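Posted in: Structural Biology > Protein-Ligand Complexes

Title: Requesting predicted complex, iron/sulfur cluster in pocket

I'd be grateful if someone could produce the C-alpha coordinates for the following input. Sequence and ligand are given below.
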Amino acid sequence: MSVKPVAYQPHWSDRFYLFAVLKGMVITLKHFFKKKYTVQYPEVKWPVPKGHRGAIRLNKDEQGRMLCVACEMCSTACPAKCITMKAAVSPWPDREKYPLTFEINMLRCILCGMCQEACPEKAIELTEIYDFSAYTRQDLIWDRERLLKNYDLTCDGRYFERSREETGL
Ligand code: SF4
Ligand code: SF4
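-- Reply #1 --
Done. Output follows.
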Protein backbone atom coordinates (compact mmCIF):
# COMPACT_ATOMS: atom_id res chain seq x y z
CA MET A 1 0.00 0.00 0.00
CA SER A 2 1.54 3.33 -1.01
CA VAL A 3 1.66 6.25 1.45
CA LYS A 4 0.22 9.46 0.12
CA PRO A 5 2.65 12.40 0.69
CA VAL A 6 1.25 15.13 2.94
CA ALA A 7 2.03 18.73 1.93
CA TYR A 8 3.79 20.78 4.62
CA GLN A 9 1.44 23.15 6.34
CA PRO A 10 3.27 25.77 8.45
CA HIS A 11 1.84 26.58 11.83
CA TRP A 12 0.30 30.06 12.01
CA SER A 13 3.11 31.21 14.35
CA ASP A 14 5.73 30.15 11.77
CA ARG A 15 4.27 32.58 9.26
CA PHE A 16 5.57 35.54 11.34
CA TYR A 17 9.16 34.20 11.18
CA LEU A 18 9.59 35.68 14.62
CA PHE A 19 11.47 32.78 16.16
CA ALA A 20 13.67 32.38 13.09
CA VAL A 21 14.56 36.09 13.14
CA LEU A 22 15.28 36.04 16.89
CA LYS A 23 17.39 32.91 16.52
CA GLY A 24 19.40 34.56 13.74
CA MET A 25 19.95 37.70 15.82
CA VAL A 26 21.19 35.68 18.78
CA ILE A 27 23.76 34.00 16.53
CA THR A 28 24.83 37.39 15.10
CA LEU A 29 25.19 38.91 18.59
CA LYS A 30 27.19 35.91 19.79
CA HIS A 31 29.71 36.40 16.95
CA PHE A 32 29.75 40.18 17.43
CA PHE A 33 31.59 39.86 20.74
CA LYS A 34 33.87 37.01 19.71
CA LYS A 35 37.51 37.42 18.59
CA LYS A 36 37.61 38.54 14.95
CA TYR A 37 39.59 36.58 12.39
CA THR A 38 39.24 38.98 9.49
CA VAL A 39 41.76 41.79 9.00
CA GLN A 40 41.39 45.04 7.07
CA TYR A 41 43.92 44.13 4.38
CA PRO A 42 45.90 45.89 2.94
CA GLU A 43 45.90 48.45 5.77
CA VAL A 44 46.39 45.60 8.25
CA LYS A 45 48.47 42.59 7.34
CA TRP A 46 48.21 39.09 8.72
CA PRO A 47 51.60 38.12 10.19
CA VAL A 48 52.82 34.82 8.79
CA PRO A 49 54.40 32.07 10.92
CA LYS A 50 58.16 32.01 11.41
CA GLY A 51 59.94 30.30 8.56
CA HIS A 52 57.51 31.48 5.88
CA ARG A 53 59.21 31.56 2.49
CA GLY A 54 58.26 34.84 0.85
CA ALA A 55 60.01 37.53 -1.19
CA ILE A 56 63.78 37.27 -1.39
CA ARG A 57 66.25 39.74 0.08
CA LEU A 58 69.97 40.35 -0.22
CA ASN A 59 71.49 40.74 3.23
CA LYS A 60 73.89 43.45 4.39
CA ASP A 61 76.68 43.46 6.99
CA GLU A 62 76.99 45.86 9.97
CA GLN A 63 78.60 48.45 7.70
CA GLY A 64 75.67 48.38 5.28
CA ARG A 65 77.61 46.53 2.57
CA MET A 66 75.97 43.63 0.78
CA LEU A 67 77.24 40.28 1.99
CA CYS A 68 77.17 38.67 -1.44
CA VAL A 69 80.55 37.70 -2.89
CA ALA A 70 79.18 36.81 -6.34
CA CYS A 71 80.15 33.12 -6.06
CA GLU A 72 77.09 32.05 -8.09
CA MET A 73 76.28 29.14 -5.79
CA CYS A 74 72.68 30.36 -5.52
CA SER A 75 72.14 30.63 -9.26
CA THR A 76 73.66 27.18 -9.73
CA ALA A 77 71.34 25.68 -7.12
CA CYS A 78 68.21 27.47 -8.34
CA PRO A 79 65.90 24.94 -10.02
CA ALA A 80 63.98 27.69 -11.83
CA LYS A 81 67.13 29.31 -13.18
CA CYS A 82 65.86 32.73 -12.27
CA ILE A 83 68.98 34.27 -10.71
CA THR A 84 71.49 36.12 -12.88
CA MET A 85 74.42 38.25 -11.84
CA LYS A 86 77.49 39.96 -13.15
CA ALA A 87 80.55 39.75 -10.90
CA ALA A 88 83.11 42.52 -10.60
CA VAL A 89 86.26 43.16 -8.58
CA SER A 90 85.23 44.07 -5.07
CA PRO A 91 85.79 47.66 -3.91
CA TRP A 92 86.41 46.27 -0.41
CA PRO A 93 89.66 44.56 0.67
CA ASP A 94 87.99 41.68 2.56
CA ARG A 95 86.67 39.89 -0.55
CA GLU A 96 87.65 39.34 -4.15
CA LYS A 97 84.35 39.87 -5.92
CA TYR A 98 80.95 41.43 -5.46
CA PRO A 99 77.87 41.47 -7.71
CA LEU A 100 77.89 44.47 -9.99
CA THR A 101 74.40 43.40 -11.05
CA PHE A 102 72.16 40.83 -9.38
CA GLU A 103 68.72 39.99 -10.69
CA ILE A 104 65.97 37.61 -9.67
CA ASN A 105 63.09 36.96 -12.00
CA MET A 106 60.21 36.65 -9.55
CA LEU A 107 57.92 35.56 -12.37
CA ARG A 108 59.82 32.29 -12.42
CA CYS A 109 60.85 31.97 -8.79
CA ILE A 110 59.00 29.20 -6.95
CA LEU A 111 60.12 30.38 -3.49
CA CYS A 112 61.73 27.02 -2.79
CA GLY A 113 64.56 28.42 -0.67
CA MET A 114 67.35 26.49 -2.44
CA CYS A 115 69.31 29.71 -3.03
CA GLN A 116 69.28 30.41 0.70
CA GLU A 117 70.44 26.86 1.45
CA ALA A 118 73.27 27.07 -1.08
CA CYS A 119 74.69 30.45 -0.08
CA PRO A 120 77.95 30.13 1.89
CA GLU A 121 77.78 33.76 3.09
CA LYS A 122 74.16 33.88 4.36
CA ALA A 123 73.76 36.68 1.85
CA ILE A 124 70.44 35.68 0.35
CA GLU A 125 67.33 34.89 2.35
CA LEU A 126 63.61 34.45 1.92
CA THR A 127 61.45 36.77 3.99
CA GLU A 128 57.98 37.08 5.45
CA ILE A 129 56.86 39.40 2.61
CA TYR A 130 54.00 37.60 0.90
CA ASP A 131 52.12 40.51 -0.61
CA PHE A 132 54.26 41.55 -3.52
CA SER A 133 52.64 42.13 -6.87
CA ALA A 134 53.12 44.38 -9.85
CA TYR A 135 51.27 45.84 -12.80
CA THR A 136 53.93 44.87 -15.33
CA ARG A 137 56.06 41.78 -15.82
CA GLN A 138 59.17 43.94 -15.82
CA ASP A 139 58.42 45.12 -12.27
CA LEU A 140 58.73 41.54 -11.07
CA ILE A 141 62.29 41.24 -12.26
CA TRP A 142 64.04 42.49 -9.15
CA ASP A 143 67.44 44.07 -9.33
CA ARG A 144 70.09 44.41 -6.64
CA GLU A 145 68.60 47.60 -5.18
CA ARG A 146 65.14 46.10 -4.87
CA LEU A 147 66.54 43.01 -3.16
CA LEU A 148 68.53 45.19 -0.75
CA LYS A 149 65.39 47.22 -0.04
CA ASN A 150 63.66 44.00 1.00
CA TYR A 151 66.44 43.61 3.57
CA ASP A 152 65.83 47.13 4.93
CA LEU A 153 62.12 46.39 5.23
CA THR A 154 62.51 43.10 7.07
CA CYS A 155 65.84 43.13 8.95
CA ASP A 156 64.32 44.38 12.23
CA GLY A 157 61.38 41.95 12.11
CA ARG A 158 58.90 44.83 11.96
CA TYR A 159 57.69 44.41 8.38
CA PHE A 160 54.05 43.93 9.36
CA GLU A 161 54.09 47.12 11.45
CA ARG A 162 55.20 49.27 8.53
CA SER A 163 52.73 51.42 6.61
CA ARG A 164 51.93 50.87 2.94
CA GLU A 165 53.70 54.12 2.08
CA GLU A 166 56.86 52.87 3.77
CA THR A 167 56.89 49.45 2.13
CA GLY A 168 55.75 50.68 -1.27
CA LEU A 169 53.82 47.39 -1.67
S1 SF4 B 1 63.66 30.56 -4.02
FE1 SF4 B 1 64.13 28.82 -5.38
S2 SF4 B 1 63.33 29.41 -7.36
FE2 SF4 B 1 63.46 31.27 -6.13
S3 SF4 B 1 65.44 32.16 -6.62
FE3 SF4 B 1 65.73 30.88 -4.82
S4 SF4 B 1 66.34 28.90 -5.62
FE4 SF4 B 1 65.47 30.04 -7.32
S1 SF4 C 1 73.91 35.33 -2.76
FE1 SF4 C 1 75.30 33.90 -1.75
S2 SF4 C 1 75.39 32.15 -3.12
FE2 SF4 C 1 74.53 33.84 -4.30
S3 SF4 C 1 76.28 34.72 -5.30
FE3 SF4 C 1 75.97 35.85 -3.42
S4 SF4 C 1 77.28 34.86 -1.92
FE4 SF4 C 1 77.10 33.46 -3.65
